[in-house]
Amino acid sequence: MFAILIASLHPSTASATWSIVILDPTTQRIGVAGASCTGYVYGIMGLLPGKGVLIAQAISSEPSIQQAMKLLDQGVSTDSIWRVISNPAFDPELSIRQYALATLRGEIVQYTGTGTPDYHGDRKATNVLVQGNTLPGPEVLDRVMTAIRDAQTARRTLEDVLMAGLQAGADAGGDKRCGAQRAMSAFLVVARPDEPVGRPYLSLIVFGSDSSGVNAVDFLHTKLSEWEANGGPKNRRSRMDFQPPASPRKEPDVIQRNN
């Protein structure tokens, strides 16, 4: 049943350009954000509340996400999980992938394949992992890390820290395939340790903005501000999906799933 649930939460393929993982050992929360010049980037993530998270991007890997979630649920270490999913027999296309694997125990693994599109790279700090590919240059990741550090120093909420990092990446150039648009899809998720898989207290997803020309990160930022203005975690909404409108006069399509 666990494997079936995990499989149902991810599309068969997803791509990404820059993503952020932040772990809060004090509250045991896990926060993840990402953006891409593709229509639906949410599928790069596997998150097990109270335990850990895997990002599989550039070209996502559903088998890797499913396997990592299964092993995380069993309490397997990140090193052991990495040995499984990085085995060429398991993933013969490892060189074109980018991974971030972290647990609330403080274990982390980052990997950027040599075949991922340039600019590619990763950064890390205590309880923070940032990775990206198809970027204009290293300044994108550097500005993401600076924004995260500054937001944490200012004691902003975990949601705002994630958004600050994601926005900084967009402002620094985002996905170079998108030009001035920066991103066509984006997401921001924060999960408490006691929440079921796939139903965190905050899950904002922006998809399919290619036809509208809207910067998906800017749109996500607006939706996060609205969520916070309406009471934030008190809303207890597990997921909100948004597709930006095709024109300024049309209201966006919204799909909401409530707890």
The level of helicity is 25-40%
How confident overall, as mean pLDDT?
88
Q: What is the element string, with H for helices and E for strands?
A: HEEEEHHEEEEHHEEHEE
Structural class: alpha+beta
User: Total number of β-strand segments?
Assistant: 12
Distance between the termini: 20 Å
Cα gyration radius (Å) = 17 Å
Helical segment tally? Answer: 6
Low-pLDDT runs of 5+ residues are 1-12, 255-259
Q: Could you tell me the strand content as a percent range?
A: 25-35%
Q: Order of strands in the sheet with the most strands?
A: 7-8-1-2-9-10-11-12
Q: Give a short account of the largest sheet.
A: 8 strands, mixed
Shape annotation: globular
Short recap of the structure:
It contains six helices and twelve strands. It has 259 residues and is of the alpha+beta class. α5 (158-171) packs antiparallel against α6 (216-229).
Write structural notes for this entry.
- The chain is an alpha+beta fold.
- The protein has six helices and twelve strands.
- The strands form two sheets. Strands 7-8-1-2-9-10-11-12 form an eight-stranded mixed β-sheet, covered by helices on one side.
- The longest helix has 15 residues, at 139-153.
Supply the key terms.
259 residues, alpha+beta, eight-stranded mixed sheet, disordered N terminus
